[in-house]
Specification:
- By secondary structure, the chain is α+β, with helices and mostly antiparallel strands.
- The chain has 5 helices and 3 strands; from the N terminus they run αβββαααα.
- β1 and β2 form a beta hairpin.
- The protein is globular and about 50 Å long.
- Bound molecules: FE2/S2 (inorganic) cluster.
- The site of FE2/S2 (inorganic) cluster (FES) has 10 residues, from α2 and α5.
Amino acid sequence: MALYSDKVMDHFRNPRNVGVIEDANGVGEVGNAKCGDIMKIYLKIVDGIIVDVKFETFGCGSAIASSSMATEMIKGKPLSQALELTNKAVAEALDGLPAHKMHCSVLAEEAIKRAILDYYQREGIPYDEEQFRSVDCCHCEG
Ligand code: FES
């Protein structure tokens, strides 16, 4: 059996939503200290809806596929829904990732959460710190 699903290969070869949003109002950057990969998510939020999202990922194929899929999953969605996106849901939408590559999908979940947190902080919108607890926790295994 192939190590990577067709969906992973598709999103790796043809990643959706790559780039920068110049007038983004929420930006989140996370990295994994162990592998050195970095992911940056840009959000354009209007009335609580993610009207546009782009990403830049300097990392492995699974991280690129995860960013691509995750951005597709939150585009056009309300913030409340984007905050509920888990790395597991991203991996499932990609028809699975090898166990040793699951941490790559964690970057996507965290980068999105961090970008939403950035938006709340820029706009002075009160937020529930509980929802962002994982954001400051490093998931690298080192
Ligand atoms: Fe670093 Fe995939 S190996 S994010």
